[in-house]
Amino acid sequence: MGASDVALARVACSCPPGTEGTKSCNHGRLCGTLRADGRDVGAILIAEGLAEAYACGATSCPKRRDWCAG
Questions:
Q1: Paired sense of beta strands 39-40 and 32-36, if any
Q2: Lowest CB count within 10 Å: 3, 36, 45, 47, which one?
Q3: DSSP-assigned beta bridge partners for residue 40
Q4: Rounded distance, CA 41 to CA 3, Å?
Q5: Using CA atoms, how far apart are residues 35 and 40, in angstroms rounded to an integer?
């Protein structure tokens, strides 16, 4: 896959306005989408069983899976 086949786009976060990029939003990380050949890399990894969807609710996040445990 060549570099022209990969695209990274910054997307709006679901955090409260004015908090993006701070500890109050996503632990200070910016939000983005990575695509390879026009396909969302996150969706590819989930479909192949290499990742899980991780979506937080309004007040809490789901427990994370211990990937090292197998």
A1: antiparallel
A2: 3
A3: 35
A4: 15
A5: 5
CB 16 within 8 A of CB 24: yes
Q: State which residues of the chain have pLDDT below 50.
A: none
Please identify which residue in the block is written with the tokens 């396909």.
39
pLDDT, one tens digit per residue, over 49-62 is: 888 887 777 777 78
Decide: pTM greater than 0.85.
no
Q: From the CB of residue 37, how many other CB atoms can be counted at a distance below 10 Å?
A: 10
- Residue type (1 letter), 3: A
DSSP H helical segments within 1-70, as ranges? 41-47
